């Protein structure tokens, strides 16, 4: 098993999308990239801790490649908007990739550069840096979309990301009965 850590706005939306993929064993919502030890949700939302809302993905590289995770990541959020995703505004919603190895760092940097070069995006602002510390979010944030599918925020923002993954990455999607 390997791990990948991404921030692309509200972690509820990103978590739900990645849970759709075959080879992804678990997705944990949390916080990374800040300067406060063991922050809580309210602290992170204040913008004072420096953390981003992120998800940490545990995946089987024999079933899904890190590059595939990067493709999904760049597809389900806007990597050109600084400190904002949809209605969520603040540095805690920034686009970020926190690498777990030098190989992941190099792969993520090359992947973003290629997207720019190919004209897929213009002005990617995604932070790409080594992961320092990951702090797991409070329990009520874990599997939030699954637990709250009728929540208005989830219906408007998480559900479309889940559908996009099911449609665009059907070959990697978990069978949905």
UniProtKB/TrEMBL annotation:
Q: Which UniProt keywords apply?
A: Oxidoreductase
The Gene Ontology terms for molecular function here are:
L-methionine:thioredoxin-disulfide S-oxidoreductase activity; peptide-methionine (S)-S-oxide reductase activity
Q: Quote the InterPro entries the UniProt record gives.
A: Met_Sox_Rdtase_MsrA_dom, Met_Sox_Rdtase_MsrA_sf
Q: Where is the Peptide methionine sulphoxide reductase MsrA domain?
A: 4-154
Q: What is its EC number?
A: 1.8.4.11
- The catalytic residues are 10
Q: Name one Pfam family in it.
A: PMSR
Q: Which reaction does it catalyse?
A: [thioredoxin]-disulfide + L-methionine + H2O = L-methionine (S)-S-oxide + [thioredoxin]-dithiol; L-methionyl-[protein] + [thioredoxin]-disulfide + H2O = L-methionyl-(S)-S-oxide-[protein] + [thioredoxin]-dithiol
UniProt lists the family membership as follows: Belongs to the MsrA Met sulfoxide reductase family.
* Function of the protein: Has an important function as a repair enzyme for proteins that have been inactivated by oxidation. Catalyzes the reversible oxidation-reduction of methionine sulfoxide in proteins to methionine.
Name this polypeptide is given: Peptide methionine sulfoxide reductase MsrA
Q: Supply the gene name.
A: msrA
């Amino acid at each position: 098993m390997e791990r990948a850590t991404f921030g692309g706005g509200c972690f509820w939306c990103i978590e739900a999308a990645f849970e759709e993929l075959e080879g992804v064993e678990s997705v944990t919502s949390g916080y990374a990239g800040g300067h406060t030890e063991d922050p809580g949700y309210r602290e992170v939302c204040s913008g004072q801790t420096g953390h981003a809302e992120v998800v940490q993905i545990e995946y089987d590289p024999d079933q899904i490649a890190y590059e595939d995770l990067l493709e999904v990541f760049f597809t389900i959020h806007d990597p050109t908007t600084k400190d904002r995703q949809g209605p969520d505004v603040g540095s805690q919603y920034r686009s970020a990739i926190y690498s777990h190895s030098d190989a992941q760092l190099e792969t993520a940097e090359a992947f973003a550069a290629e997207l720019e070069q190919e004209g897929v995006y213009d002005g990617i602002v995604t932070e790409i840096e080594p992961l320092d510390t990951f702090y797991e979010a409070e329990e009520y944030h874990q599997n939030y979309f699954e637990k709250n599918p009728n929540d208005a925020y989830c219906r408007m923002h998480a559900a479309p990301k889940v559908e996009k993954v099911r449609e665009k990455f059907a070959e990697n999607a978990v069978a949905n009965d």
